[in-house]
Amino acid sequence: MQRTALYEAHLRAGARMVEFAGWEMPVQYGGTVQEVRAVRQHWGVFDVSHMARAYFRGSDARTFLSRLVPSDLAKLTPATGLYTVLTNERGGVVDDIILYEPAPNEYLMVFNAANRQKDLAWFHRWHKAWGMQVAIDDQTEQTVMLAVQGPEATARLSTLLGTELELVPRFGAAFVEWRGARLFAARTGYTGEDGFELIAPAEVGVALWNALLEAGATPCGLGARDVLRVEAGLHLYGHELTDDTNPIEAGLGWLVSERTDYLGAEAILKAKQEGVSRKLMGIRLQERGVPREGYPVLIEGQVVATLTSGVYSPTLEAGIGMAYLPTAYAKAGTPCAVEIRGKPVPAVITTRRFLKGS
């Protein structure tokens, strides 16, 4: 099992460690509910160094990446990033990613820890097939990645790093010098809150983590991260996204351009034009209960779907989840139920925007 450069620091902070995607990661410190509230109300920091990070460099880098994603990469300029998906020949989702352009002819991709080897093999497969001038450089183990999130995150981080991060736009990025190291700071996150994701050389990871805790950031684990992303209606690969999931039914049609030169374009554009048989929606319990992945969703007593994700939301004080519902039922306000330990608990279908402004 792999460990991030911050493993010992997590133990010193009282973390409970668990296995996740082949890594030994902190699931919580003081408690998931406390950590969720810290991020919603103040600021917190997550070690997300298990997330995969690779650079694509060369004269053909943009052309190569454009064939792997449905988005228009012409929207990318140096010091910006965008969220998109890797697609396969069937129009399914290989992974969801964030792609940044640190400099001309250089791209940084952050992708899911569980898919690291699968995705790298995918990149090398098409690199060999297309023969383009692009170098693929996996830097996952040479760097650390910290997510600093919450309404106070940007101001606090600006003070700590001595730079005006407030000037960086959403999905913008900047390089920051800190204690002799060069940090990549992107105004992105996975919580529905403002904040930055920092990528730094592994050797300064512990010092950066300690500095954030000393500045008052609450250390947060994977448990809080999952609750926060469900509250924000954000996808997780292996749950809301799979190799057989079309981005249109996943509610990601907004990132699909009119281009036809990427893998799976025909299937995706057909779904976009003709519609889909199911849609990803939110579900909120109307009574007490904790919904979990795999629990049946019932309408008029009949099972119509199963939850792809489910959590108790401390922010809403309610059980919430997501599910792919037949299009006929995929309307906010439709009554339903979630079967929890054999008992149907009343619920209502909602959009995935559980939180206002998320």
How do you describe this structure in short?
With 358 residues, the chain is of the alpha+beta class. The chain contains eight helices and 19 strands.
| Number of helical segments with 4 or more residues | 8
Based on DSSP secondary structure assignment, what is the total number of beta strands?
19
Kindly name the structural category: alpha+beta
Number of domains: 3
Helix content: 10-25%
Strand sequence of the main sheet, in spatial order? 10-11-12-9-3-13
- Strand percentage lies at 35-45%
Overall pLDDT confidence: 97
Classify the fold: give the CATH topology of the largest domain. Answer: Gyrase A, domain 2
Per CATH, which architecture of the largest domain? Answer: 2-Layer Sandwich
List SSEs in N-to-C order: HEEHEEHEEEHEEHEEEHEHHEEEEEE
CATH homologous superfamily designation of the largest domain: Probable tRNA modification gtpase trme, domain 1
Name the CATH class of the largest domain: Alpha Beta
Largest β-sheet summary: 6 strands, mixed
**Gap from first CA to last CA:** 34 Å
Return Rg in Å: 20 Å
Low-pLDDT stretches are none
What coarse outline follows from CA principal-axis ratios? Answer: globular
Oligomer: single chain
